[in-house]
Amino acid sequence: MFSSRFHWDLRPNRLTQLLQARRRAGARILDLTESNPTHAGFSYPDAIREAFADPGMLVYDPAPAGSISAREAVARYYNARQLVVDPEQILLTASTSEAYSYVFKLLADPGDEVLVPRPSYPLFEFLADMDSLRIRQYPLAYHAGWSIDLDALAGSVNHRTRAIVLVNPNNPTGSFVKRAEIAALSRLAASHDLALIADEVFADYAFAPDAERVPMIAIQSECLAFSMGGLSKAGGLPQVKLGWLVCGGPETLRRGAMEKLDWIADTYLSVGTPVQCAAPRLLELGQDVQRQIRARTAGNLAFAREKLQGSAASLLAVEGGWNLILRMPRVRSEEEWALELLAGCGVLVQPGYFYDFESEAFLVISLLTAPEVFREGVHSLGSLLD
Q1: H-helix or E-strand containing 264?
Q2: pTM, two decimal places
Q3: Rounded (10°) CA dihedral 264, 177, 218, 74
Q4: Measured on CA atoms in the order 361, 199, 15, 11, is the torsion positive or negative?
Q5: Are residues 74 and 221 in the same domain?
């Protein structure tokens, strides 16, 4: 009696089973997978709570694209990064996941396909299934740094392809899309009537400047393109549930897309009034949390590089984001490495297959982890390698 969308195997894997058993036994766990900033020990300004005292939250005056004051605040957020965005290009959503759903509904019919990167965040298959779409993966190649395999991507385009998803910077590789890549992708998309969908939630977290990096795809593309962001990462506030879409590209296509997106958003009206009223202040206050996160991730990255230098593990190049990838010796599978670390050292990491790595043996650890936990966990990992 239920939809065919629910076809996934949700049985716990071996790592989850071991983790549950250790937690039941009360064992200490050094969690190097923490991705929730509200659980990571950051200091949040008291003024965040005060931002929700706006009397406007008691008035319901729905606007499908979001209130103009909130959209202007998002525009200022981009303008502060020297990115010119008009509030009329912005549509608010309750989350990035909802933004994906809106764009999928805009661009595709059931059974159509979207191209997504591999490796990357494993949510895409679930999001596509929920909108009755199929995903087709294109590879990211690693040669002292990550790049898009443009030939393989072009070869994946067919008559059912409707969009190319880019994650900028990628999660978990931390690699940004480069200017030469976006130029080639824009030409490819325009020639096949495709759109680019860019998930840029980690864009504020680059470790160093790079002139070849694309800071925002929606405003630097020759085809219809969308950039996504949200307070979850921009302000370290996943609990307040505010995301957004920025639409760019040729004016005729952009206007048509925004008109239809407005209609989709009007059907759901999911963004709450309180968070829209608070948005201008939250985006300002979020800068302080951002600074803390940048300091944390940079410090943890420096420690990992120093501690694991000369070990049997190699650290893959990372440009930004909250994760670090380790290439482990292939004397055992990445799952076996993860199981041994948890069983023998109490250290929790993620194996690469969680993110669809095509080969062995990779581990993914979170740079967001509290420094004392991160240092102890990485020390234990280094000792195991020794």
Answers
A1: helix 251-268
A2: 0.96
A3: 80
A4: negative
A5: yes
CA distance 161 to 43: 44
Domain boundary, last residue among 252, 284, 316: 284
Structure tokens at 378: 């990485």
The answer to whether residues 303 and 266 belong to one domain is: no
What CA–CA distances, in Å, run from 227 to 224, 245, 315, 316? 11, 6, 29, 26
* CATH number of the domain residue 38 falls in: 3.90.1150.10
Per-residue exposure over 160-169, b if at least 16 CB sit within 10 Å of its own CB, e if not: ebbbbbbbbb
- The domain in which residue 56 lies consists of 47-284
- Characterize the bridge pairing of strands 195-199 and 161-167: parallel
Same domain membership, residue 126 and residue 86:
yes
Count how many residues are written for the chain: 386
Helix axes 251-268, 96-107, angle to 10 degrees: 120
Q: Domains in the chain: how many in total?
A: 2
Place 8 in a pLDDT band, splitting at 50, 70 and 90: confident
CB atoms within 10 A of CB 309: 10
pLDDT tens-digit series, residues 242-293: 999 999 999 999 999 999 999 999 999 999 999 999 999 999 999 999 999 9
What are the φ/ψ torsions at residue 90 (nearest 5 degrees)? -105, 140
Q: Are residues 250 and 291 in the same domain?
A: no
Supply the DSSP symbol for 68.
H
* E strand or H helix that includes residue 196: strand 195-199
Spatial CA neighbour of 338 closest among 70, 15, 82, 4: 15
Residue 7 domain-assigned (yes or no): no
Cβ(31)–Cβ(364) below 8 Å: no
The CA angle 84-90-93, to the nearest 5 degrees, is: 140
